[in-house]
Write a structure and sequence with these properties.
Length: 550
């Protein structure tokens, strides 16, 4: 875990609040750049892909949106190295510039009708630039803020920065609403959709100016002055004992990432694609809920300073896994076209975003405290973007494809529910509490015995035992329903064997039998959602395009 590099405490700068505000403003703008693509997925699908099959075009756009997430760990890998070798400030200035230019350029691309398939390839290239640059942004921003604030209030102050992705979505929705309202839906769909992308040029120029006013972090300056900078960030982060901490952080961040995107982004897709609410109304509902619930990120960051990072983060995962299905079923009931209960719809999404606050508000402080300063940028960036880029980034595509294939809400929610449940159980055993870790003062070498890598494969085996039943059920139910009975039997037998072996190994390792009972949570969860996939309602079985509008 984190250890200070100086012989004594480094002085906390007096202007740290200005640092937090400046970093957060820049972060909001960068997340706006990234999420404007997802917010306009329905429009982009008909502008850059062949229109003969609207559902396929939409899924292609969502897949392209997802591709930007999948490349984020590579950006974290590259820019993390720069951040630990050159400095935090200049690295995330580079990522901010690349992100803004990539987003603004999307507003200049000719459409499919004008240049054919080349339009989709250009869009793909710019999306890759977005993903690479965003991969280097978060690690720099959270490291920068964490290395300016006190140990006692790190959760609270980094919680302010954690609001920036949610506010980025709010800003993107606000710009879309304003543009649609001013030009009208017809003009917007014809060409005014480019304006939200072009605005990025102005926003990024403002953000660059703000960040140029900032200095380097005092902890990095101290490391540099003491000649203790790393010469090989990749080797120290991934080819040493630190890799155990990276793997544990990945598990925590995968659960956090899935909750983040399931609670915010899939709510947006759900209203548009499942409930068939028009885009403008969807933006109003989601935007209002995000504005109301965004302070929860600060609240739960503050709470983690009092009771710890671990109980808050894992509590959010557990609540999400248990309540997603009833909440989304309720959301579907109150958002029927022509009969929308706006207060209840906003209230439901507020609950979903509060779960985001629980898992995301304290996670910045957790990551900063979990890794040493000399390799903090790299070590924070890579697991964050594996969890959010791979784990969370798959949520829009997997959920939308699952619902399109089966018409079942249960099938669509398999991934958003099973993954946080599994990560909750793994986190109970593997995630340490970092609240008392100081990054300003020297600390004793932590006891690594608790995190021996030898036990990790057994936890991963449990993940497989939990995820396979539900995933196989959803897949076979969509492709070959006639084979479901045999597949269910074989998969459940194999999963039960894996679970028994895992429990036996954990018992031999000295874990209490009461703790091992927690291992049944994800497997039971998988079986429940497998059953839901097998028995969707008649209404849910109807294809999306065949649903009647009252």
């Amino acid at each position: 875990m984190a250890m200070a590099m100086a012989a004594g405490p480094v002085e906390i700068p007096r202007d740290f609040r200005r640092v937090i505000i400046a970093a957060a403003v820049g972060n909001v703008i960068e997340w706006y750049d990234f999420y404007i693509f997802g917010s306009l997925a329905a429009v982009l699908s008909v502008k850059f892909f062949e229109k003969s099959h609207p559902v396929a075009a939409l899924l292609s756009t969502i897949a392209l949106f997802t591709a930007g997430f999948l490349i984020r760990p590579l950006g974290a890998f590259l820019f993390g190295w720069l951040g630990d070798r050159i400095g935090r400030k200049y690295t995330f200035l580079v990522t901010l510039s690349g992100m803004g230019l990539g987003t603004g350029a999307i507003g200049l691309i000719p459409t499919y009708e004008q240049i054919g398939l080349a339009a989709a390839f250009i869009l793909f290239g710019l999306r890759m630039i977005q993903g690479l640059c965003l991969g280097g942004e978060y690690g720099g921003a959270i490291t920068y803020v964490a290395e300016h604030v006190s140990d006692e209030r790190r959760g609270y102050y980094t919680g302010w920065l954690q609001t920036s992705p949610t506010l980025g979505i709010v800003v993107s929705l606000f710009v879309i609403i304003a543009t649609r309202t001013y030009f009208g839906n017809e003009v917007f769909d014809a060409g005014a959709w480019r304006i939200p992308f072009l605005i990025s040029f102005l926003l990024v120029a403002i953000a660059i100016y703000i960040r140029l006013q900032l200095g380097e972090t005092p902890i990095f300056q101290e490391i540099k002055a003491k000649a203790k900078m790393t010469t090989n960030p990749w080797g120290e982060a991934f080819a040493s004992t630190n890799v155990k901490f990276v793997l544990i952080a990945c598990i925590v961040l995968i659960g956090q990432g899935v909750v983040w995107y399931s609670g915010q982004f899939w709510a947006l897709y759900f209203l548009q694609q499942v409930s068939k609410v028009d885009p403008l109304t969807t933006a109003y509902i989601v935007g209002a809920a995000l504005l109301i619930a965004t302070p929860s990120l600060i609240l739960f960051g503050w709470l983690s300073d009092i009771i710890g990072r671990k109980p808050v983060i894992l509590g959010g995962m557990l609540l999400a896994a248990v309540t997603y299905y009833p909440l989304y079923a309720w959301l579907g009931q109150v958002t029927q076209p022509g009969n929308i209960n706006y207060p209840v719809a906003v209230f439901i999404i507020v609950i979903l975003v509060c779960y985001v606050g629980m898992v995301y508000g304290p996670v910045g402080a957790f990551l900063a405290e979990f890794f040493p300063g000399r390799i903090r940028y790299t070590s924070v960036s890579v697991p964050y973007h594996i969890g959010n880029g791979w784990g969370g980034g798959l949520v829009p595509f997997v959920t939308s494809a699952g619902f399109a294939a089966t018409g079942s809400l249960g099938a669509a929610l398999v991934y958003p529910i099973v993954v946080p449940a599994v990560c909750f159980v793994l986190g109970v055993f593997l995630m340490p509490e970092t609240r008392h870790t100081s990054i300003w003062k020297p600390a004793a070498e932590p006891d690594l015995a608790v995190f021996r890598l030898g036990r990790l494969p057994y936890f991963l085996a449990t993940l497989c035992a939990s995820f396979i039943p539900a995933a196989a059920g959803a897949l076979v139910n969509a492709v070959a329903p006639w084979a479901m009975g045999m597949v269910v039997l074989l998969v459940l037998i194999a999963s039960a064997l894996i679970l028994v072996l895992t429990l036996a190994r954990l018992h031999d390792s000295g874990y209490s039998p009461w703790w091992t009972l927690l291992m049944f949570v994800p497997i039971a969860n998988g079986v429940v959602w497998l059953w839901l996939c097998l028995t969707p309602s008649a209404e849910a079985r109807e294809p999306m395009e065949a649903r009647a509008v009252p």
